[in-house]
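ok so heres the complex, two chains, lmk if somethin looks off
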Amino acid sequence: MTVKEYNNAVREFGDHVYRFILHSIKDSHRADDIVQDTYEKLWLCVTEIEYGAVKSWLFSTAYNRMIDVIRKDSRIIGIEYYDDSSLYADENSSDLNEVLHRALEKLPAVQRSVILLRDYEGYNYREIGEITGLSEAQVKTYIFRGRVALRNYLVKTSVWQ
Amino acid sequence: MAVTEDMDFPRLTPSDGRLPSGSRLFRGPEELTDEQFDLLSAAWADDALEGEALTELESVITADNRRRLRAESFHRLRLVAGSEPWPGMRSCLRPEPGRVSFRRTIMPALMAAAAMLALIIAGPASGRLHSKESSGVATSPEAMAVAEIQASHPIVVTDNRPDAAEIQPSHPIMVTDSRPDAAEIPASHPIITAEGRAGADGNRPAADNRRDEAARAIHLALVYQEAALSSLLPVQSNQMAPVRLTDITPVYTLPQEKNWMLRGITMIASAVTGKEKEIDGYAIASSCVSGINNLLGWEMELEKVSNKAGDPVAVNFSSSLLSFTKPMNKITP
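and the predicted structre for the whole thing:
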């Protein structure tokens, strides 16, 4: 990858990676730091990565970095200890997309990430598996469970009757 | 095989017994619980169902309107990305080789051009400034070609050259002197006298320095005229005597240890304005910066830092690309 291609990767994918991380951890400063670290890593191995593969490399590296940060902060909620009751908080907003994003914050980090990758970036299950280090079957399971949880949230908060 | 037959082991044969309640264990798609149906619906909405699974779900959806609505609701569970821009994008961009060479070549060239422009502008500007302060020389927009001298003593300037009349209409130089002890200054340059205006200021008191000032003004007028004619009338200027820089006598020069450029500018400025004043290097640099900012729309800043006594001690320069502080001393401003 050339310097020009690197800069193109910054311009083209920077916002995408940032939004993915921002909505995964809901902390703009940490999200900015994580994306900066990711691009710093990319710059260090800029000559070894093909431009065609740089997008998934960025998402994968940023995701792993985010997991490290979350673990460091001890804020991770394991899927096995996930408490479904946290979903059913009162919600008054009528904007569906906004409500969905608030509901998303209540999902476990893994479910949140795979849904974001699926909806924001349109990755297929295999690509999401490569980014997150999960199998394709696991990715499907997390996405479907996450969507059911989101739907239940909307129903319980009376956004959907 | 043969060994088995030879040994004739007994074999266990399964009985005909069947699960009596087996028929009750069969399930149809319509018997899926809501949770199971939701998971299938999520997969269906994600286009992840195929084959028999898809057929079964569609059969349920077709048969049950409530479940159809429930399944279709999953289609609406799509997150739409916001427009949050990444604030750190600029800091991650790396300079490309082409841009680096551009900065290293074009920018210094632009700076040098701007500095030259400022120097060119500084000369006439100081001349105009002098004209406002002194009554001996009055300048107009064509200050380099016209000088009018009003003094109490008449000064008669004649020109013996045959081509003087040809120059008169386009580039006159008017020298007026009403002093009684008019000095006749022969000149090799064409000068048109305006004696008709001599009586206007005839009652003004004479002063010794006035005479010197008038003489210097005439001298400078000759130099200005020569320069103006050289640029505006190239054909005629070829017939005139060249101007010698040694004719210019600066009234003030900086010590040798000063910056050569500043010494040069100060020398020229003192010859033009007649003032013993050192040119401020900061003012020239500040003009350069302002000119570049106006020309290119940049936001460079040049600031002089003074100590408590008011003496300049440093100059701060700041721009989006470069910021530095240059200490100042008395020798190399």
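quick notes: Chain B touches chain A through 30 residues (CB under 8 Å). thats all i got rn
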